[in-house]
Amino acid sequence: MSKLYIVPTPIGNLGDMTQRAIETLKESDLILAEDTRHTQKLLNFFDIKKHLVSYHKFNEKSRSEEIINEILSEDKNVALVTDAGTPCISDPGYELVKSAREAGIEVIGLAGASAVTIALSIAGIDTYQFAFYGFMPRKKSELDEAIRKVKDNPIKTFVLYESPKRIINLVENIKKHMPNATVCVCKELTKLHENTFSGNVDSVLEQLNGHEDVERGEYVIVGYNNDYVEKEQNNSNVSIHGILFDKLIHKDYSLKEAVNEAVEEGTASKNEAYKASLEIKKFIENY
């Protein structure tokens, strides 16, 4: 029965290519590549001679349908790779995997290189929970909004990708919104000139500004939002009922207005605030 293989490739060091990945590519009938020229160099290095087809973010939807039909009609085993790392992680692949599963095609993922997990493993930051955001928006207003969402996420460890030309700007924005954040900025992971800059966001920004090759290479940022911890601690002894009562009395809000503001502030979820408002309403009616 035909299968779709999701095959990670090295993010910089060819020694990270697994034997299973090499064998899978050799045994596949077709290899889908983000950039066929880039992948051809990898195949040549490992003496893999297979037909390559381009599969990237600009043709992902249309090409997925073609590939699924080819797998089903010709009983082919297909391997998906990207330029570096694991497909579908801030890279093309989601549409194809989704379509394959809907068509009943078995999807098999291989272990291998991923900048996300490598960065997390060396950051020295709590990794029991983390939120991955990929690349941040370029526009200032959109970037501000995106960083605010990172800040407001109760999962305090975050992972971001960034290009060398925008790394300073990104860390400056992290400092602006999360001045107490701990960050580890990883540059050129697994490559010859791999480097890390870690510590308080102020210190890391200073390190980056003093690095002569800061605008070369690719970056992964792992951070921990200490500002959210302080917010949690400051509000830990205040119930949502107390917060709503405070808005009713001191701001002369209606119960609905108090609930809406509490949700917008991130004090409580919509369901928690609504449930508390019903209990307050019942208390007021019976008082």
Write up what this structure looks like.
The chain has twelve helices and ten strands. It has helices at residues 19-27, 36-45, 60-74, 94-102, 115-123, 140-152, 167-177, 201-209, 226-235, 240-250, 255-265, 270-286; strands at residues 3-6, 30-33, 52-54, 78-80, 106-109, 131-135, 157-162, 182-187, 195-200, 219-224. It is α/β, with parallel strands linked by helices and 287 residues long. The chain has a five-stranded parallel beta sheet with strand order 3-2-4-1-5, sandwiched between helices. The chain has a five-stranded mixed beta sheet with strand order 6-7-10-8-9.
Strands side by side in the biggest sheet: 3-2-4-1-5
Task: Characterize the main sheet.
Answer: 5 strands, parallel
Flag low-confidence runs: 229-237
Number-wise, the strands total 10
Gyration radius from CA atoms, angstroms: 24 Å
Q: Please write the string of helix (H) and strand (E) elements.
A: EHEHEHEHEHEHEHEEHEHHHH
Amino- and carboxy-terminal Cα gap: 70 Å
